[in-house]
Amino acid sequence: MASTSQTINERTARLCAETALFMRDHVLSRVSHDLRSPLNAIHSWAYVLERKIDNADTAAQRALGGIRTGVEQQVHLLESLVDKTRAETRKLRIDRAPVALGELIAQTVDDARAALADARGVSFAVQDGTGAAALDADRERLAQALWLMLVFAAETSVQGASVAVTANATPTGAQFEVKWRATPQALTDEALEHVLEPFARVQAGEPQEIGRHAWVLALCQRVAEAHGGRFEAPIAPEGEEATMLLGVVAA
């Protein structure tokens, strides 16, 4: 029994580490993108000012030089620190092989129960329509993405809630849907059990921009895209039904 518990804890720790890794990658990507736009604008306006300012105005020329130097330093930091740090995760490696979807779903649901759902009293109502279907995909990455969807649903559920899990397969792909009644306040309720790291839970509870999802779900997005599919996690108001959808395409 102790050995089984240790194995579950080790797998949960590994899944949490993968989640944190891709959240970090997503944050760095946002930082790189969102900083480059204003830096480009500053550089462009400095060029405009250069044409307007008298070359004999040494103070103004020094100011422009300082602006250019500052922009160049920031761009160098982005390239040397942010972009290089993302190098290992920028392109997600996918090792495709036939995956028995029914077995994958059952094991992943069990992992999510052991990680958090059982401690929260959250139940998973599974409707597996995949039958004996097999999909040419990366089993481990699919399991990670589905596990994160289930754990996130549990994290945003009150004690004793129910989460609906539906899976379907076609000859060309598969789709996993998770539905539950969202209670974002549960993310930071210290009276409840948690498995996702505090920073991820706090950010997930903040208002999200239209078309963007919580940073902690970045792994799901990357896995879907690497399999030629899509990931959807629309924002759900407090107490209303939330839905996450992971679709993947066979090679």
Automatic annotation (TrEMBL):
<dbReference type="InterPro" id="IPR036890">
    <property type="entry name" value="HATPase_C_sf"/>
</dbReference>
<keyword id="KW-0418">Kinase</keyword>
<dbReference type="GO" id="GO:0000155">
    <property type="term" value="F:phosphorelay sensor kinase activity"/>
</dbReference>
<keyword id="KW-0597">Phosphoprotein</keyword>
<dbReference type="InterPro" id="IPR003661">
    <property type="entry name" value="HisK_dim/P_dom"/>
</dbReference>
<dbReference type="Pfam" id="PF00512">
    <property type="entry name" value="HisKA"/>
</dbReference>
<protein>
    <recommendedName>
        <fullName>histidine kinase</fullName>
        <ecNumber>2.7.13.3</ecNumber>
    </recommendedName>
</protein>
<dbReference type="InterPro" id="IPR036097">
    <property type="entry name" value="HisK_dim/P_sf"/>
</dbReference>
<feature type="domain" description="Histidine kinase">
    <location>
        <begin position="30"/>
        <end position="250"/>
    </location>
</feature>
<dbReference type="InterPro" id="IPR005467">
    <property type="entry name" value="His_kinase_dom"/>
</dbReference>
<keyword id="KW-0808">Transferase</keyword>
